[in-house]
């Protein structure tokens, strides 16, 4: 049985391939070529990928990512489809599922929703619950830079507090949309935002996410 991460990996590769190397994405300043290079570097160049978390390594990350972005686009797509080398920890199913399910889902939507004719995917309930559990576990991290109190709420009433504070803004939507919102895709997530207008405006302009 395919894992969620494997399915999202293949979908992301298909979307990148169909869009071509120069298409826009929701990642600020990145075209599809840049996004593909990021995905490859993240799981194949641990020596550089540390720059995603450690500012002192950011320059090295940018240099290595630029080197990969200069490779033939078809090669990048094939590296994404193939996945990490066998000696990589990410080649293990459990680690792949934990590290890549959300990563690939979000980036697939970064490609899809940057196109003018995009439409929402219909997700099965099992996968929606997987995304909600990830949202619950990472809500405080993703919402740490919120300038106001932030509560994420599913239509069934389940909630996750992303940031404590006042005034409070409540964002309601399906798990996938809440996850995208918390990852900083506020303008593209299909959600309802409730709260004081000034607070809502401050939240809309905030840099949420990793």
Short description:
This protein has 210 residues and is an alpha+beta fold.
Number of strands: 4
Percent helix, as a range, is 40-55%
User: How many distinct helices?
Assistant: 9
Distance between the termini: 30 Å
Task: Characterize the overall form.
Answer: globular
Radius of gyration: 17 Å
Mean pLDDT level: 90
Detail the poorly predicted runs.
none
Strand content: 5-15%
What structural class results from the helix and strand content?
Answer: alpha+beta
Biggest β-sheet strands, sense, barrel: 4 strands, mixed
Number of domains: 2
Order of helices and strands: HHHHHHHEEEHEH
Largest beta sheet: strand ordering: 2-1-3-4
Describe what this molecule looks like in 3D.
The protein is an alpha+beta fold and about 210 residues long. It folds into 2 domains: about 5-110, no CATH class; about 135-205, Nonspecific Lipid-transfer Protein, Chain A (2-Layer Sandwich), CATH 3.30.1050. Helix content is about 50%, strand content about 10%. The protein is built from 9 helices and 4 strands, in the order H-H-H-H-H-H-H-E-E-E-H-E-H. The protein has helices at about 5-20, 30-45, 45-50, 60-70, 75-80, 95-110, 125-140, 175-180, 195-205; strands at about 150-155, 160-165, 170, 190-195. A 4-stranded mixed sheet has the order 2-1-3-4. A hairpin with a 5-residue loop joins strand 1 and strand 2 (about 160-165). Helix 2 (about 30-45) packs across helix 4 (about 60-70). The longest helix has 20 residues, at about 95-110.
